[in-house]
Design a protein that fits this description.
single chain, 292 residues, alpha/beta, 2 domains, 9-stranded mixed sheet, 3-stranded mixed sheet, 11 helices, globular, binds S-adenosylmethionine
Length: 292
């Protein structure tokens, strides 16, 4: 394994890259069941796997996080939304209004949606919130390594980075990729800290722009996270704006609530007061509602 991982060996994501490479052999049909003979597979495909580990950034897009995000979009409270996602990967969560959702208090979306998301929720979101039906008008994402869903090889690599035995995650990803292939959201390649001010300056006044992100700002330094806050706050002071964040909460109450402590936070300008709507786990499977 050390030989294959080379310079990336000590990096936290080296195992993800290596198992992604092995999973890709399975998805591509070359090794239908690499897991039952892993030592041989690692030996036989060593050069190829070493290249994959050296060259491929680990790239994932977790569609289930839309189940955690939906109550945030609804809480923004506007009838028409222009979405700007920071770190969208393949942009699948920009298509959140295409899926159906189930929560204890009710459901959202159409019965014939290509994907139905559900999870374990307590305390909400409330039924009245789930009655809101905002129209999504704009969908734009900024990612330094965007995945082009129309490129079959790129779409297969995205699937390879899901753990091979997590079939439900894979099925969700494939269903979302199928939809995205026909209506790919616009993705800008670049650093969102650089691109965002220009995009916000050009936002339209006849819809509410919602800047949102999930599992993305953890990759920024504390200084850059503060810079992002400054960019959004400045834009919010100039014209209406919403900022929805599904990120690690930065505290440690996992022992108390029983799952990873991500949080769903919303700020809407004018005003810009921060509302913590929910605690979530990292992949959008569990939610504890805190909002109104
Ligand atoms: C773990 S993925 C999460 C993808 C998606 N938000 C989701 O929830 O599935 C993090 C994404 O953020 C992007 N990213 C991180 N920092 C970025 C930055 N400063 N500018 C642009 N993209 C960034 C990465 O390229 C990656 O696509």
């Amino acid at each position: 394994m050390e030989e294959i991982c080379g310079a990336r060996g000590s990096s936290w994501d080296a195992p993800l890259a290596l198992f992604g490479g092995v999973h890709l052999l399975a998805l591509g049909g070359e090794e239908p069941d690499p897991w039952s003979r892993l030592p041989q597979v690692l030996r036989e495909h060593r050069a190829r796997l070493a290249r994959f580990v050296a060259e491929e950034p680990v790239q994932t897009n977790e569609v289930q996080r839309a189940w955690g995000l939906l109550p945030g979009f609804l809480s923004a409270g506007a009838p028409v939304l222009d979405l700007v996602e920071l770190g969208p990967s393949a942009g699948l969560n920009l298509l959140w209004d295409r899926w159906a959702y189930r929560y204890p208090a009710g459901s959202w979306g159409s019965d014939d949606a290509p994907l139905a998301l559900h999870g374990e929720a307590e305390g909400g979101p409330p039924a009245e919130l789930l009655e809101r039906r905002p129209l999504v008008r704009g969908r734009l994402g900024i990612d330094r390594a965007p995945v082009d869903v129309r490129d079959d090889a790129a779409a297969l690599r995205l699937q390879a980075f899901v753990w091979a035995d997590q079939e439900e995650r894979l099925a969700r990803l494939r269903a979302a990729l199928e939809v995205a292939r026909h209506e790919p959201p616009e993705l800008v390649a670049g650093d969102y800290l650089e691109e965002l001010p220009r995009l916000l300056a050009a936002r339209a006044p006849d819809a509410l722009t919602v800047v949102f992100h999930s599992a993305s700002t953890a990759y920024l330094s504390a200084e850059d996270r503060a810079r992002l806050g400054g960019i959004v706050e400045k834009a919010g002071e100039e014209a209406p704006l919403a900022w929805l964040s599904y990120e690690h909460a930065g505290d440690d109450i996992q022992g108390e609530i029983g799952f990873e402590t991500f949080a769903l936070d919303l700020r809407v300008w004018p005003g810009g007061e921060r509302r913590r709507l929910a605690r979530l786990d990292g992949h959008g499977n569990r939610l504890r509602w805190l909002g109104p």
